[in-house]
Amino acid sequence: MGSKVPIGTFVYASAPARIDLAGGWTDTIPITLVLSLSYDPNIPPQHFHSLEQIRDHADPLVPGALLKACLVASGILGITAMRHEGDYKTLAEALKHSGGGLELEVRSSLPVGSGMGTSSILIAAILAVLKTLMGNPYTNNDLFYETLDVEQMMNTGGGWQDQVGGIMPGFKVSTCELDLPIQLKTNTIEVSEEFITTFNSRLLLIYTGKTRLAKNLLQTVLMNWAGQEPDVVDTMHRLVVDASQCEDALRQGDLKTVGTVLTRYFADKRFLSETTLSHPPVVAQLLSHLNPHIEGYSLAGAGGGGFLAAILKPGLDKDNVMREVKEAMALEGGTRHRRQDSDSESEGGDDAKEGVDGDSMWDWSAAVDRQGLIVQVGSPCY
């Protein structure tokens, strides 16, 4: 047990987003047992005054569900998720246990529905901050598993790849043995400095301007897996094999193979989610202009919107490629597509409700992160 942070002291945590290059869905329970924030200043503040209001995190749509689940899971309030359990009867008593009060501020520089693991990474960062405040030592593995716990408390489920991607630096691969309890093994993929420089120069990260927040995506994929349809089983096996191939290609500095696997990975993700996620027409239009310039591509996460990651062919300049693509799409009216409000829940047919937002598709500056999760204790601010 370490020392608690003095009252009046802020603890800061920051973590990068993750881009999945291969192997998605194979980290998801129960599949893995067989195979292997946007800030809106217009939203009014929410006030909670009772323990029951803190414990209602089981519905991920309630205001503050993620923060509430983190607070309960961390133990900082001395309460559990179960009603009538614990030593404290009121929120005031629980706050007194933690030192009298707690200010928790969370921000994300990514838009809603980015596909880059934002929620899981935020959970891991919040847990790291709360543990630091309490003086509780922790490891990366603790954060991996406890993030899974929080997601179960919220009834969102999920695997571990998002938090592994945000906590650990650089390229990494994670696996587990076919046994219970799950024993997660994570390794950093060692690559040369020259390769990282090359990768950064050839990585395109493009925001499609389309948010696709599909309901019940996880449940749909798990039900398809449970049905053991041969095509679904074959796809899952291929995801595992391709993850190993991508790892080998990264170690060897072979970006052409990385691109090939990335494209195949995207096709497999689309197959698994085709009944739940639609493919925005603007993405197909974008790819028609990008294809001559790239080795491979995939929408981050489950797909259906958010960010597109692509690997440029050697010798090409990012800015020139994007300028050419934007000009071509502008002639077709492609970059003046519509914007979705962050609180809408389009699953493929709500474009008529969206408003024109000008040039809302653009390329983001992206590079391989070298630090992973960073937690710092500030100076007391009395």
TrEMBL record:
Cross-referenced InterPro entries? GHMP_Kinase-Related (IPR052203), GHMP_kinase_C_dom (IPR013750), GHMP_kinase_C_sf (IPR036554), GHMP_kinase_N_dom (IPR006204), HddA/FKP (IPR001174), Ribosomal_Su5_D2-typ_SF (IPR020568)
Query: GHMP kinase C-terminal domain: which residues?
Result: 248-329
Chain intervals for the UniProt region annotation (Disordered): 329-357
Swiss-Prot/TrEMBL GO biological process terms? GDP-L-fucose salvage
Q: Which UniProt keywords apply?
A: ATP-binding, Kinase, Nucleotide-binding, Transferase
What's one GO MF term for it?
ATP binding
Gene3D superfamilies in the record, alphabetically? Answer: 3.30.230.120
The record's family statement is: Belongs to the GHMP kinase family.
What PANTHER family does the record tag this protein with? L-FUCOSE KINASE
Q: Name it.
A: GHMP kinase N-terminal domain-containing protein
- Recorded source organism is Linnemannia gamsii
